[in-house]
């Protein structure tokens, strides 16, 4: 994977990105919820699978002192095959650069799909620090190792071809997922993840996920930290494994989840489709009350 992937912009221009204008302006009427820390990963910008609208909504409603981008933010593999870059994807980059400018500490840990950023490890693009891994200290004093998680593919997948077969099957699933949700939107049904549903039905996938979680936790234990935060497998989770706190922040392709830390160190997984649903239900109820 040593080939260079062309990005929709020059990486050096990232520092000036906030000076440009977003296609969709930020909502000025929203008081943002504030957390100590936010972790997101597996956004896969540059693919149709990315739920950009949902992530823009999240970024417009949530703020934090620190934000970790835990890899696969861009999908260089797909961009290389077929160039796809809608305005909404630019708007996400713009929002991230803007919050860096406003003073949010942002740490970007590239994954395997955006490994072209790994060559910039140690550099700072307009307040976004690129790191290979990080140690995060929570408000309640726990030391958590933050990494993407593809480091363990050699152990969790016995052969490289299996990873790529998985990649093809995965993109087929994403296409189906998209059509299922176009239909559901037309029918005014809430967002539903086909692949998330399938994953929990398929025994192999369940085994793969738990094996990944155990291996990552094992590595954290060997490193002498209290816990670990990963992405990569698109499965948001919290588990206590062998004395280690294992967290996964999920993804913005299927689950649309983020991991957050409250001011007291308490951690929570936010399911953004559920948050939107609850907000819309509350708004509809308020409208009904106003009309009555
Ligand atoms: Mn990955």
Automatic annotation (TrEMBL):
One BP annotation, GO: lipid A biosynthetic process
GO cellular component: membrane
Gene3D superfamilies assigned to the protein according to its UniProt record, in alphabetical order: 3.60.21.10
GO molecular function: metal ion binding; UDP-2,3-diacylglucosamine hydrolase activity
Residues covered by the Calcineurin-like phosphoesterase domain: 36-235
Keywords: Cell inner membrane, Cell membrane, Hydrolase, Manganese, Membrane, Metal-binding
Family matches, as InterPro entries: Calcineurin-like_PHP, LpxH-like, Metallo-depent_PP-like
Record-linked Pfam families: Metallophos
Protein name (record): UDP-2,3-diacylglucosamine hydrolase
Lineage, broadest ranks: Bacteria, Pseudomonadati, Pseudomonadota, Alphaproteobacteria, Sphingomonadales
């Amino acid at each position: 994977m040593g080939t260079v992937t062309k990005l929709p912009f020059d990486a050096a221009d990232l520092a000036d990105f906030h000076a440009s204008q977003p296609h969709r302006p930020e909502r000025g009427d929203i008081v943002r919820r504030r957390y100590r820390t936010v972790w997101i990963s597996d956004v896969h910008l540059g693919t149709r699978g990315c739920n950009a609208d949902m992530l823009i909504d999240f970024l417009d409603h949530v703020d934090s002192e620190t934000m970790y981008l835990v890899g696969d933010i861009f999908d260089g593999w797909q961009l290389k095959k077929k160039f796809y870059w809608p305005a909404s994807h630019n708007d996400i980059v713009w929002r991230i650069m803007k919050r860096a400018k406003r003073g949010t500490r942002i740490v970007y840990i590239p994954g395997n799909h955006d490994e072209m950023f790994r060559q910039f490890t140690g550099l700072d693009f307009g307040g976004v620090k690129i790191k290979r891994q990080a140690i995060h200290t929570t408000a309640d004093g726990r030391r958590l190792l933050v990494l993407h998680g593809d480091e363990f593919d050699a152990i969790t997948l016995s052969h490289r071809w299996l990873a790529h077969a998985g990649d093809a099957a995965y993109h087929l699933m994403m296409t189906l997922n998209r059509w299922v949700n176009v239909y559901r939107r037309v029918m005014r049904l809430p967002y539903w993840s086909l692949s998330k549903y399938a994953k929990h039905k398929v025994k192999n996938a369940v085994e793969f996920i738990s094996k990944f979680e155990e291996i990552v936790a094992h590595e954290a234990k060997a490193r002498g930290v209290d816990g670990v935060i990963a992405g990569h497998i698109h499965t948001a989770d919290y588990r206590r494994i062998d004395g280690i706190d294992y967290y996964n922040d999920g993804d913005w392709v299927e689950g649309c989840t983020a991991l957050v830390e409250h001011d007291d160190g308490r951690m929570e997984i936010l399911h953004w489709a559920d948050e939107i649903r609850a907000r819309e239900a509350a708004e509809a109820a308020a409208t009904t009350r106003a009309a009555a």
